[in-house]
Amino acid sequence: xxxxxxxxxxxxxxxxxxxxxxxxxxxxxxxxxxxxxxxxxxxxxxxxxxxxxxxxxxxxxxxxxxxxxxxxxxxxxxxxxxxxxxxxxxxxxxxxxxxxxxxxxxxxxxxxxxxxxxxxxxxxxxxxxxxxxxxxxxxxxxxxxxxxxxxxxxxxxxxxxxxxxxxxxxxxxxxxxxxxxxxxxxxxxxxxxxxxxxxxxxxxxxxxxxxxxxxxxxxxxxxxxxxxxxxxxxxxxxxxxxxxxxxxxxxxxxxxxxxxxxxxxxxxxxxxxxxxxxxxxxxxxxxxxxxxxxxxxxxxxxxxxxxxxxxxxxxxxxxxxxxxxxxxxxxxxxxx
Amino acid sequence: xxxxxxxxxxxxxxxxxxxxxxxxxxxxxxxxxxxxxxxxxxxxxxxxxxxxxxxxxxxxxxxxxxxxxxxxxxxxxxxxxxxxxxxxxxxxxxxxxxxxxxxxxxxxxxxxxxxxxxxxxxxxxxxxxxxxxxxxxxxxxxxxxxxxxxxxxxxxxxxxxxxxxxxxxxxxxxxxxxxxxxxxxxxxxxxxxxxxxxxxxxxxxxxxxxxxxxxxxxxxxxxxxxxxxxxxxxxxxxxxxxxxxxxxxxxxxxxxxxxxxxxxxxxxxxxx
Lengths: 336, 272
Known about the structure:
The complex is a heterodimer of chains A (336) and B (272).
Chain A: H1 2-9, H2 11-36, H3 42-59, H4 64-85, H5 90-111, H6 116-124, H7 132-151, H8 153-161, H9 163-168, H10 173-192, H11 200-211, H12 218-245, H13 252-281, E1 309-313, E2 316-321, E3 324-329, E4 332-335
Antiparallel strand pairs in A: 1-2, 2-3, 3-4
Helix pairs in contact in A: 2-7, 2-10, 2-11, 2-12, 3-4, 3-5, 3-6, 3-10, 3-11, 4-5, 4-10, 7-10, 8-10, 11-12, 11-13, 12-13
Chain B: E1 10-19, E2 22-32, E3 37-42, H1 48-55, E4 63-68, E5 71-72, E6 82-85, H2 99-104, H3 119-131, H4 147-160, E7 165-169, H5 177-192, E8 196-200, E9 213-218, E10 221-226, H6 231-234
Parallel strand pairs in B: 3-8, 3-9, 6-7, 7-8
Antiparallel strand pairs in B: 1-2, 1-4, 4-5, 9-10
């Protein structure tokens, strides 16, 4: 256990922890809006395009983070334009863009004589090799994403919920659409050092999918997703670090994603149970049976806590068991 | 109805709309005075929804102009005076959303950037939920509501902005009768307050007593404009395809969608 404490005292480990924390906070924040628009895979697409940006940065020896930001933003805006214009072949156009980005990145880095190892750091994340500058950039970008996602929440929510209504409310819908695309691109580059470009979308989408198993409102969904994302990324890093003290080489990026997925696997049955319960307890539609139909011999006395499902029906309660709905009527029960 | 100097609530003059090169609205002239309750009726494909979408600026006009409260659409910025209820099967989206949150988005026209809901916002949201009779469901997810209740949520969203001109696109489509009555009650409350209402409806049902004026569209033109009609009158063959009542031989009209047919398709002759 002391080994682990020593490990977390190391500067590179602290930098990794900070990066994991802010990534886990920012990625689900923008991811919630993507899921709301049913664009869960957009983060994946931007991640593929950003590979070209990283390769350009590596080949030209400029900061891969900034070239990735520029190319990812350009790609995100292009995706948004394709989405807005194209009605029928939108997904094919997106696919072209995704694969173009990935292939372009590998092609460019090969021409530039870069080893695939350098590119791989960005494809699968390399939390433990961050410099102080990397951490600062990550923190600033993540703070910007979180501030805009929460500060402009009413506007972004309305545009994602119902574009036509938002336009008639006088909102500049195109501006907000592009803003979401740009924020998604920025969080992709924020997360690329943590979980890598190929797994980036997981951190944007999986915490949201987990949260919405048990939530009923947008506010709680986005808040819970940000908490879950942070838990997964910090927890995943800690798990990988702990494993390394036992000489097990666990890569932080995939560990984080697997932990987030484990959260979903736990939440899913809970969500199923909650939805089933809500369905069972939904009040019966009003109106009564056309005829008075008393039940036959009924030795059991229904009441609160009698063990049978009590469902509201007009001004009384029906007790549901064995395919019957029993409502109290004087000394006997009626079939409702 | 109003003094000659007051501008009409909404007016379209010589308005045409093309979709994919096909004319959908043809030189429409229509003026709705402040305080009117107008029902836009007509068969599917007659252009009634397109007309409403053109009036609120969602469909660009190829000719003519729309004026809202005397101001052309391009110069109109007073969006809080407008309440729009789009044609929707559902108010749900990819993420759970509570009834309160959907209605709260109707307050956007009154809110400044980066500011939380004010007390006035909350009061307006509560009142809107009260009017449509869903105050007790405010915390529930919209997706748990029935279709008719979701439609009432969308109306509450428009109400929350406290507008004085409402556009409703088929609010009664696919809504059961008790919900239609709840809807009629909410719209009646609006009318009492002196709101102007433009309602697209295939059939009026319980809304019929509220209507002051009926406009029947046919084939992108106004075919009738005057006193309210009973439902079956709006579907007489000289207005549109007979839809619910087949008193006469069907008089087939084309709609705006090209028909794709193959030898195995069922015959499209006769009443649909």
